[in-house]
TrEMBL record:
This is UDP-3-O-acylglucosamine N-acyltransferase. It catalyses: a UDP-3-O-[(3R)-3-hydroxyacyl]-alpha-D-glucosamine + a (3R)-hydroxyacyl-[ACP] = a UDP-2-N,3-O-bis[(3R)-3-hydroxyacyl]-alpha-D-glucosamine + holo-[ACP] + H(+). It comes from Shinella kummerowiae. It holds the Pfam family LpxD. The gene is lpxD. The lineage of its organism: Bacteria, Pseudomonadati, Pseudomonadota, Alphaproteobacteria, Hyphomicrobiales. It comes from the Bacteria.
Length: 355
């Protein structure tokens, strides 16, 4: 794939300098003056591209790759052909992520739709009682409500709505069309397009007649520092308590977080996950895509939940769970193996009868 105008190549970083910045070892100093401009997968890398490998399954692509350099751990060095420079790192995936940030910094946050100096663009509305620190940018059609406070270096994208009294920290990106209400946002938070933060939680009581009566939702959403929230994700405000997203947590697109949920620090939550109200999730929890988490349960620190799982009860810290209902991974894998064996046996018997 040719470089395109959306993310053009970097002006160039010396490979020797890049190695130092990443804490990696350049295996042959003769390659130190090579210039790295972009990142690429191995199979279509060109001159100036940096790649990484984590598995031997890519070894057949290396012979024809035109990559400038490859990041890998020491066990893969012998696989790299001599025309490609080698950067050795104990954590090549992490080093590659850092290299990508250096080479393509503009891709790390939602794009700026209207390039303009910091300030309030024509067509935006900022309430006179809102307070904006220096170097805040408000793009066209954005609305900032009464009493909102926004910290230095934050950019509010076009069409975004920041509700009355909302507080947003410094160096945040609130992308196009996002809405933030009844919320306190920390520093260095990224909210992608179309995210909905702070709307009503889903709470109803049975009525005296057929139907339901809405339960008032008077809590807040609290999002701590360095959180990233994907496009079209929804985070409901609390009923009478707060919904809390812990520091460093990364939430993918199209995730639903119900009212009063508390998510710990440095969690990873993948697309289509639904978390029902009042669930408690510990630090460092990883939840695979399309999983459903029952309400009023506790998931301990360091838990890993496989994709498409249904979690109906508490999970102790450090466990790996999967399946519907979710159970310890060893039990889930044993059940899947037994189902596969039974299925294979039925097919064999059916084939024998047909003969």
């Amino acid at each position: 794939m040719e470089h395109n105008w959306f993310f053009p190549p970097h002006d160039g970083i010396r490979l020797g300098d890049l190695a130092i910045a990443l804490g990696a070892e350049l295996m042959d100093a003769v390659h130190a003056d090579r210039i790295v401009r972009s990142v690429s997968p191995v199979n279509r890398a060109k001159s100036g591209d940096l790649c990484y490998i984590l598995s031997r399954k890519f070894r057949h692509e290396l012979a024809t790759s035109e990559a400038c350099a490859i990041l890998c751990d020491r066990s893969f060095v012998s696989l790299i052909p001599p025309h490609i420079a080698v950067l050795v790192s104990a954590r090549p995936h992490t080093a590659f992520a850092r290299a990508g940030e250096m080479l393509h910094p503009a891709a790390m946050r939602p794009e700026v739709i209207i390039s303009a100096p910091a300030g309030i663009a024509s067509g935006a509305y900022v309430d006179p009682e809102a307070r904006l620190e220096a170097d805040v940018s408000v793009e066209p059609m954005a609305v900032i409500g009464k009493g909102a406070e926004i910290g230095e270096g934050t950019r509010i994208g076009p069409g975004a709505i920041i509700g009355a009294g909302v507080r947003i920290g410094r160096n945040c990106s609130i992308a196009a069309g996002a809405t933030v209400q009844y919320a306190l946002i920390g520093n260095d938070v990224i909210i992608h397009p179309g995210a909905r933060i702070g709307q009503d939680g889903f709470g109803y009581a049975p009525g005296l007649k057929p139907g339901m009566i809405k339960i008032v939702q008077i809590g807040r959403v609290i999002i701590q520092d360095n959180v990233e929230i994907g496009a079209n994700t929804t985070i409901d405000r609390g009923t009478m308590d707060d919904t809390v997203i812990g520091e460093g947590t990364k939430i993918d697109n199209q995730v639903q977080v119900g009212h009063n949920v508390r998510i710990g620090r440095h969690c990873g939550i993948v697309s289509k996950v639904g978390i029902a109200g009042s669930t408690r999730i510990g630090d460092g929890v990883m939840i695979g895509g399309a999983s459903g988490i029952n309400g009023h349960i506790t998931i301990g620190d360091g838990v890993q939940i496989a994709a498409m799982s249904g979690v109906v009860a508490d999970i102790p810290p450090g466990e790996k769970y999967g399946g519907v209902p979710a159970r310890p991974m060893r039990d889930f894998l044993r059940d899947m193996a037994e189902i596969a064996m039974r299925s294979s046996t039925r097919v064999q018997k059916k084939g024998g009868n047909d003969e």
